[in-house]
Amino acid sequence: MSAREKILQQIKLNKPAETQLPARISFESHYENTEIKFTETLAAVYTEVIVVASYDELRKKAFEMYADVVNRATTIPALADWSDFSLNISDPHDLEMIEVAILEAEFGVAENGAIWISDNHLPHRALPFITQNLAFVIPRNKIVNNMHDAYKILADTTGWGCFISGPSKTADIEQSLVIGAHGARSLVVFLLEEE
Amino acid sequence: MSTVTKDHAGASEVFNEDEPYVNWHDETLWFVRTKRDKSSKQLPEWEELRESASQIKHYVLSHMDGLLQTFEQKAKENGIHVHWASDGPEHNEIVLGLLKQHNIDKMVKSKSMLTEECHMNEFLIKNGIDVIDSDLGERIVQLRNEPPSHIVLPAIHLKKKDIGDLFHEHLGTEAGATDPQYLTEAARQHLRDKFLTRRAALTGVNFAVAETGSFVVSTNEGNADMGAHLADIHIASMGFEKIIPKQEHLGVFLRLLARSATGQPITTYSSHFKTPREGQEMHLIIVDNGRSTQLGREDFRNSLKCIRCGACMNTCPVYRRSGGHSYHNAVAGPIGSILAPNLDMTKNADLPFASTLCGSCSNVCPVKIDIHDQLYKWRQVLVKGGHVPKGKEIGIKAMSMVLSQPRFYQWSGKLGRSVMRAMPFVVNNSLNPWYKQRDMPEPPQESFRDWYVRNRRE
C-alpha cells in the first residue's frame, strides 16, 4: 500500500464524527476613517504613506525621493523615464542589483497595513523581496477595512500573491527590532487619486 | 546536534542555575505575551474569532481525508507535484530524492518545525547535502549545533553576547560586537549570498487551502520568499493538519496568527503560492508522522488544531522558567507536551508533568485547544501505561492512599508538622525536590481542620 493510501485509510478510520463549518466566519471592522487607520497602522511598522493626486505628481515624487539612487526599477509605465533598470530579463538573480523598485499593487487593508501584490502586476515574484528598497502604488480608493473584506476581493488568487506589511524585519536577537532582515530595508506606499 | 539525555525536571535544574539569566528569559517571554494581550484587545470580535477558528479546525479534523484529496487534486491541476510521507524518514527520503534527481547538493531552508520534527537537516547533511537555515534565529541555532528553543523565536534562549561571539567565529564580525543592527546586517549579507547561489529552497506551510490547491507561508524576514522565488525547485513540507477548507477562512486565521504569536496585526509577508513560476518546479510533501494516530485519540485529537503561534509557550510559567531545550522535543512548551507523548510515550512521559495545570495556555490559544486538560489526561494515560518512573508512581500511589483515608490524613499531617518543626533538616535538604530553589515554609501551629473544629466549639 502506498503512503497516500495508508494515510487516507488511517484518517478515515480515526476521524471524529462530522461537524459543520461555523455560521460566522466574517466580521466587520468599523473605523472613523479607513485611510487614516491604514496610514497609522503602516506608520507603526515604519512605513510612510503618501497621497499623490496624479501620475505626474508620483513621477515628481519619485525623482525627488530617489534622486541619488542608481538601479531604479518600476512596473509603472508613467515612471519609465525615472527607472534606469530594465525588468526585461529572464533570470531573477539579475534583479540583485536593484536599489529601489516602485511597483503597482492592488489594494490595502486598514486593520494591519497589508498590501496585496500578485503575479497580475509583477514580471518577477522575487522583485519585492530582492530589491533593497520598495515602494507600492495603489489606488487611493482601494483600501478595505479588514482581512475578511480582503478575501472577498480575492475570491480566487493568481499563481502567486502576497500580503506585504512594512519592510522586512526581525527580532531574533534578544527581541530587539531590526529593520531589513532579508527583504526590503524600507517601504513607502503611494495612494494614487487619479483613476 | 547536541543530545539531551536529561528529563524535563533534570534539564530545568541546569537551566535554573543562573538566576539572573532565568529571570531575563522569563521576563522576555512575558513581554511577548503582553504584546499579544494588547493586540488581541483591539479586536472586539477576538473571542468570536477564536471560536470560529476552533470550529473550522474541528470541521477539518472531521473531514480530513476528503479535504486532503480535494487539495491534492487542485494542487496537481495548478502544476504542483504532491507527495505523501507516512513518517519522518519517508519525508526525508523524498527530499533527498528530489535533490539528487536535480544534481543539487546545496539547499536553503526557511522555518519549518516539521523538518525539525523529522530531523531532516541531520539526515541530509549525512547524505552530503549542505542545508542552510535562512531564518535569522534558526541560522543562529544552526551555527551553534542546537535545535530551536521556541517555535516562533528559535534563539530566544540566547543573549546578544552569545550571538556576537558566534558571529565573530563564523561570519567574521568584530570581536565583542553585540549591536543587534550590526549583527543582523552581517547575517543579511551572509545569507543573501546563499539565496543567490542555492538552486533548491525548502519552506514550511502555515495553511494549505483545499478549495484552491494553494498554500500560505508567513514570515517577517522575507526569507521564505527570497529562497522560493530564486530557486529552480521549491519544496514545501506540511503536516496534514495544516489544511483549511476555503480561502476565505484565511481571513480568520491570518487575523489570529500573528496577534497571538508576537502581537503584530499580521506578519510582514503572507505569501500565497498556487502555481510554480515559469520554468520552476514546485513540490509539496504531505506528512503524517503520527498525526493520524493522534486523530484517533478522542481526548487528544484537538491538539491537531494547532496553528503554531507559540502563545502557549510565552504564557507558560514553567516554559518561561525552564527554557525550550528542557522539553527535548521539536515543539516545546504546553503544546509540545501534548503532541510529544503521541510520538513516543516512553521518551516523552515526563512532559505532561512539566506544567502547573494553571490553564493559561488554554486561555490564550487562538484555536481554543484544551491544552491543560489534555496535559492532565496524558498523565493518567502515561501512569496507567507504566511510562512514568517507579519513584513517581509510588509517590502518586502513596498520596492516593493518604488522601482517601481521612483519619490517616489527619494523623500524617500532624506528624509532618511536628517533624518539620522539630527537625527542619529532614525536609530542608537536597533530597526533597520541593526544597530546590526555595525554602520550605514555616509549618503552621494547627491545621485548617483543627482550627475549624476549635472555632465551631467556641
Automatic annotation (TrEMBL), chain A:
Alphabetical list of InterPro entries matching this protein: FTHF_cligase-like_sf, LUD_dom, NagB/RpiA_transferase-like
Organism: Dyadobacter psychrotolerans
Source domain of life: Bacteria
One of the Pfam families matching this protein, by short name: LUD_dom
Protein name, per record: LUD domain-containing protein
PANTHER family assigned: LACTATE UTILIZATION PROTEIN C
LUD domain span: 98-192
UniProtKB/TrEMBL annotation, chain B:
A Pfam family that the UniProt record links to this protein: LutB_C
Protein name as it appears in the record: Lactate utilization protein
Keywords, sorted A to Z: 4Fe-4S, Electron transport, Iron, Iron-sulfur, Metal-binding, Repeat, Transport
One GO process term, biological-process aspect: lactate metabolic process
GO molecular function list: 4 iron, 4 sulfur cluster binding; metal ion binding
Residues covered by the 4Fe-4S ferredoxin-type domain: 296-326
Cross-referenced Gene3D superfamilies: Alpha-helical ferredoxin, NagB/RpiA/CoA transferase-like
PANTHER family: LACTATE UTILIZATION PROTEIN B
Keyword Transit peptide: no
